[in-house]
Structure formats: C-alpha cells, structure tokens
Design brief:
5 strands, 6 helices, TIM Barrel, 5-stranded parallel sheet, single chain, alpha/beta
C-alpha cells in the first residue's frame, strides 16, 4: 500500500486543544484477527472495523495496544495493521494508533508511519523495559513527543510494570502535544 500523507486537522501547537474538543464518545480497542497460518487476517480486520462503523458502535478506534497483542507483532505487522485500520475508517471515525515500543527509535518510526497513514492521534504506553527512574521515563516520552506532530495520549497502565505518579503525568502534560 502506498502511503498518502493525509492532511492533519490540527497543528502540533494546537494538538491539545484539538484533542480536548474532539476526543469524545465511545472508543473501542480492537483486537487483530489472525489466520490459521499466523498471518494478519486483513479481510477479517476490515470486516470487524466495518461492522463497528456500520452499526455506529464506536466514535473512534484505538488500535495496536494490548488488545492487539502488539508485543507479539513485528514492526511491519504493526504498520500494516495501522494502515488497514486508518484506510477502513476513511474519515468516518477517528483513529488512534499505539506506537509505543521498547526502543525510542522504533516508536518514532511507528509514530511517523501512523502520521503518514492518516491517523488522528497516537497513544504511547509506559515504557516496559529498562526504565529505572523518573528521568528516564520522562526522556522516553519527551524524545518521542518532540519527533511527531500528532497529539499523544499516554496510556498509564500497570500492565507494563510501571504506573506513572500524578506528578509525572502533570510533567508530561506540559509537553506540547501530550
């Protein structure tokens, strides 16, 4: 699939205000179906998304995180799944793509890909490997945030083994597009 840069509805500098005004309603975290050959079931994924859209079940789709078992996917599989989700939604409902990774470099690559694919927002979960202190955790999010134009939702879940303290969340919220 050739990626066509979709024009964003907002700039980096107004990502927060745009999200506050538009990130509303019921969002669904969708699982990714696989074939019996352990390949991404692209038609099944499209069918599931279309069902949600056609039946007006969701106001937005959140993809690529725990429900999608992102840790078991290759970077290319994650990219392809995001492309499918964005393509199938085609502006009918917004899409948030999880782009977190143990590697900041990989997370930035996934974030750029989501942006080029036409995603509306990014979601980044807490670092889940090799983050020892608040400084490293902050640097993880800051490093990604500074390299993308899309608004970022931080998913603060204990599944990663790290739960962000309210003080850290407040500090991260000072980043321009978080």
């Amino acid at each position: 699939m050739s990626l066509v840069h979709m024009s964003r509805r907002y700039s980096r500098s107004n990502a927060k205000s745009y999200a506050r005004a538009n990130l509303r309603g019921v969002w669904g975290a969708i699982p990714y179906p696989f074939t019996s050959d352990d390949e991404l079931d692209e038609q099944g994924l499209r069918r599931n998304i279309r069902y949600c859209i056609d039946n007006k079940l969701l106001d937005g789709i959140y993809c690529g995180h725990f429900m999608s078992e992102f840790w078991a996917l290759t970077t290319e599989e994650r990219k392809r799944a995001a492309e499918i989700v964005v393509d199938e939604c085609k502006g009918s409902i917004p899409v948030m793509v999880h782009t977190g990774h143990t590697s900041v470099k990989e997370s930035v690559e996934l974030s750029h890909h989501a942006e080029r694919s036409g995603a509306d927002y990014l979601a980044i979960g807490n670092p889940y490997f090799m983050a020892y202190d608040d400084g490293q955790i902050y640097d993880y999010f800051r490093s990604i945030s500074e390299r993308t134009e899309l608004g970022i939702l931080i998913t603060n879940t204990g599944y990663t083994g790290i739960v962000l303290a309210p003080e850290m969340i407040n500090r991260l919220a000072d980043l321009e597009n978080v």
